[in-house]
Amino acid sequence: MKVKKVQLYKTVYTPDELPQTPYNEVAFVGRSNVGKSSLLNAVANNFKLAKVSSQPGKTRSINFYLVNDRFFLVDLPGYGFAKVPLKEQQRWRELIESYLKGRDRLKGVFLLVDSKVGPTEKDLQMKEWLDFFGIPYTVVATKVDRLKASQRRNLEERIKKALGGGDFKVIPFSAKTREGREVLLREIFNYIES
Ligand code: GDP
């Protein structure tokens, strides 16, 4: 798959703003600072769609990006930033929950986990949410360029185990070296076509 065109289609702040769209979609989620914006920019051939954050946890919106006039990449707001007030966290929860339970066209979710930090409690909760809603997902281990060779060994198995196992793949990825980009694109396409 070649990414030829990417347009911001809609930015959503509240559940009632979620659009019904004619195209299939895949969504990206993870804790703040996991490297989601960098990954999206790498996937979208540096169309500079997502702003790489200097201030983690600032984006509280869901962004719909239309790719090649054919499908959506959906950028879900990051979670797990301790300084975010409780009210804001509740708003996040409501928005994500409305999104996850109401999307017929959502074919798969990419759950981003920092390869060096490993899955956090919030990542585990997210995974359980996806299981609960019966949404297929793939885990992406981000920033693998930061790992030593010894830390790379069995990375996929270790992450899988830390998340309690299940029927999902783990893709090692680096926005810096672009490792894993082709595998990720293929996975996106498989979901969109499913
Ligand atoms: P987001 O908050 O999840 O959107 O994360 P960002 O994409 O803004 O990245 C957070 C920080 O991690 C930034 O300082 C990035 O430069 C850095 N980062 C993101 N991806 C990579 C990567 O693949 N390798 C390395 N070494 N750093 C990365």
Automatic annotation (TrEMBL):
TM region positions: none
Statement: the UniProt record of this protein carries the keyword Magnesium: yes
Swiss-Prot/TrEMBL keywords: Cell cycle, Cell division, GTP-binding, Magnesium, Metal-binding, Nucleotide-binding, Septation
GO cellular component, one term: cytosol
Gene3D superfamilies linked: P-loop containing nucleotide triphosphate hydrolases
CDD domains assigned to the protein according to its UniProt record, in alphabetical order: YihA_EngB
Residues covered by the EngB-type G domain: 22-194
Cofactor annotation: Mg(2+)
GO molecular function: GTP binding; metal ion binding
Pfam families (alphabetical): MMR_HSR1
Biological processes, Gene Ontology terms: division septum assembly
Highest taxon in the source lineage: Bacteria
Stored HAMAP family: GTPase_EngB (MF_00321)
PANTHER family registered for this protein in UniProt: ENGB-TYPE G DOMAIN-CONTAINING PROTEIN, MSS1/TRME-RELATED GTP-BINDING PROTEIN
Function recorded in the entry: Necessary for normal cell division and for the maintenance of normal septation.
Family to which this protein belongs: Belongs to the TRAFAC class TrmE-Era-EngA-EngB-Septin-like GTPase superfamily. EngB GTPase family.
Protein name listed in UniProt: Probable GTP-binding protein EngB
